[in-house]
Structures are given as C-alpha cells and as structure tokens.
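Tutorial sheet, problem 5. The two components below are modelled jointly, 403 residues in total.
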Amino acid sequence: MIIFSTGLKLFTVEHNSLLHVLNNPEQWLRDDITEKAKLRREALFAEWRPRLFADASVTELPASDDEMCALIMARDDYKTRLQQDAAQDPVVPIDKHATAKFNGTSRSGLDLRRANRVPGDATVTLFASGIDLSDVDTKCMLAYVQDIEDWAIGALMGKVNSGKKKMIAKYEPIIRADPSVTTMPATEDGLITMILARSDYQRLGG
Amino acid sequence: MPWTFYNSSGEAMIIDGGVQNPAGANFDISSYKLVGNGGSTGIAISANGEVTMAAQPCVLVSNSAKDSNVTGNNTAATIDFNSEHFDQNADFASDTFTAPVTGKYAISVAVTIEGLTGAADSWNLIIVTSNRSYRLDAYHTNLAYSQVTLNRSIITDMDASDTATIQVKVNGEGSDVVDISGSGSVFNTFFSAALVA
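Model answer (structure tokens):
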C-alpha cells in the first residue's frame, strides 16, 4: 500500500520546525510508521493469544509473525478497527481530525480564534513518491487505527508543533535578553522566522 | 575524587561531579540530576529529596471562552482547548495531545455543555485515541436543566506519535444549538495528560 502518493506539502516554517528536532524528517516518519506497525502486531498477538488458546478448534499456532497475523485476520470473529466501529451502536464515525486540520477544513465556521491552515501555500514536499507500506504492516495498523494517512499526518504535525514549541521555549528568553532586539513578531511563525535568522541559532543537538 | 562503579559485565560508571559514563548517562552530583542519552534534562532530586522530571510529558489545557452552537443534532464536535497552562515536553497543540514516546498515559477530561433544552435526549463524551476510543454515554428524557459537565479519566496505551483528542456529541435538539462552555478563571472545560509508565 502506498500512502501520500503525491507527497505531503509543508510550509517552510513547519519544515524548519521539524529540522529543529530531527535530522531527517522523512526517515523519522518512515521509522515511526514501522514501529507503530510492530507495536500493533505485538498488541494484536497479545489480545488474540488467550482467545486462540481457549478455542478448541485451534490445534496449532504458526511460528512466524506473518502467518500468525494471517491466521488471526482470517477468523470470522476478527474485525478491523473500522469494522468494529461500524458495528457499534451508535456507529463510531470515521474521525479524520488530523487530516481536516492539515487541509485547513477543521472547525470551519465554529472557531474563529485560530486561523485554519492554508495548504495551497505550502512549498516543501516530503515523500514525493509516497510511503510504501508492506501488506502485513498495513493490516496490523488497520486492526487498531481507523485511517493510516490520518495517523501519519497526526504524527507529523505533532512533531512540527513540538519543534516549534521547543524552539520558542529555548530562544524567546535569549531574544528578550538581547539588547539589540527592540521588538518581536506577534505571531508564532514570525517569531520562528526571526529565530532561524539569528546567527546564534542552533538545532537541538547542535 | 571520582567514584567508579562496575556492573556485572565489567563496564565502568564514573561519578565525578558530572562526568559522563560510557553508556551516555550522566549522574551530576552537583546539580542532583540523572540524565540519559546525552540529554540535559532528566530526573532531579532536591536537597529535601523531592523528585521532579521537568521534561516528562505532562499537560494541562482548558477552553477559555464559550464555543457556540457546535453540537445538538448529532454533530461530533472536537473540543477546542485554546489555553495552555503547562506543557512540559511540548506535546500539545491545536486541540491534540501527541504522545512523544510509547507508554501508558493518564488522561483526564471535563467538558461543560450548555444551552441544552428539553429536546436533548442523549450525549456522548469521547476520548479519541489512535488505537481506540473511550465513550461516556448518557440518555435523558424531558431534561430539566440547561447545563451539564461530562468527565472521564483513563490510563491508556499510546504508541509514539499516537494522538488524543476529545469530542462531545449531543443529539435530539434538531439543530446544533448546544455550546461548549469555557472560562478563564474557574476551569469547567479542561484536559490533562501525563506519561505514567
């Protein structure tokens, strides 16, 4: 399965915020997705092992991870997260909050206190060829996650915001103590641009 | 004078007022801090023995002003937490908590809804995490009050980069006339999360 087949577009400030805390944002997200799939596979096994032990019709279990996944997912009583949510009463709707925020369509008309993101203005492309996930990783994630792209966008933007906050937390006191600075930008993005332009700016870890 | 400790494999840990040991940890006696993996913030022990962890994920946010007409006709409204009181490890932004590491997180939430009428017949408070949702369901007939506070706590498993958001859904009003309350002084809509294990 290929996700983000046309890439993900970030603003320069967002990309620089990632680079404040990561050496290689693309590699980090790939690794994060791989780790997430591994953890979900382990969770799936932990959840299903007692059920399989208790099922008299199961006489042996495969020793390989992939075959164990296949065995679990072929059962009549196995459901993906989406299937489980659809079976709830009331039905749990698909939540794509991270995607909506990324696309600038969240809270439209409800909250004017925070401006929506305008994705059309973003210029930095990550994953121009998309991210290729193995079949078993995809299935293990979908056992728990409603939508893999939404999860990945949430992960990416969480790291962007963490980078922004950590950068500002470090440099705002430095700027305030700098007698050569008389005013500061009133926006988060403006402040980050000012920080990045300083000669004493260093990414976390140097 | 430095102190040298050896583990069962013969590896040495040297403590000399902040000397780094071969594994990368640093027990700085002068500042009473245990720091790992080249970081600068770790576990601090005060002279009185109080233990603090300044970079441990721990967040408190609230909603400072009312969000009007966001639910009532079965609309799931993601709660706006626009006021941050502390966010020790920079893990909260845009109404979303993002787990920085895989672990067990304590989440506590309260949401006050107002503008209810007698037509409202059900409401849900939902903690939406990447792996699963936790839902408080309530059903009523002939509701006699216009405001109610919904609250929930959970210790949940979150993988690194998993997210948590809060939703409220009210049904029965016929249109979205129900508000999410907010206050700047006495918090009635708030969210907190902390890494506990």
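Marking note: DSSP finds eight helices and four strands in chain A. Full credit if you identified this.
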